[in-house]
Amino acid sequence: MDIIVTTPKDQIDNAKKEGKVIEKDGGYWFRVLTYKPKVKIGNKIYFVEDGFIKGYGIVFEITQLDSSFKCDITDQFWGKYGSWIIKYNNWIWLKNPIKMKGFQGFRYVERIEDMKEMLNAAC
What we know:
- The chain is an alpha+beta fold.
- The chain has two helices and six strands, in the order E-H-E-E-E-E-E-H.
- It has one domain (3-122): Sulfate adenylyltransferase.
- It has helices at residues 12-25, 115-122, and strands at residues 3-6, 29-33, 44-49, 52-64, 84-99, 106-108.
């Protein structure tokens, strides 16, 4: 099941920094959540930034998070933000971003009326 999450405004600069390093040196992105979503390997994780769904990654690992988990790029400890980590790669920007207000937590694409069709059209 695909999900949508929001990049908090105070983390957008970190996300850009991480993206530049990963594009240059390889690696993966991750998202920390408070509880385990019904996501499977190969599902998509879409991101809302500045009022638009702008792109997505492909989930390749979902694990329980240990409180000492630290980002190698930003040196930020993430265990305080949740107990589940979703790792993703293969970032794809949407050709036509979709307007959506940011929110906390995550939402399932399938549970938002017409969202699947809008995302498919935006690719």
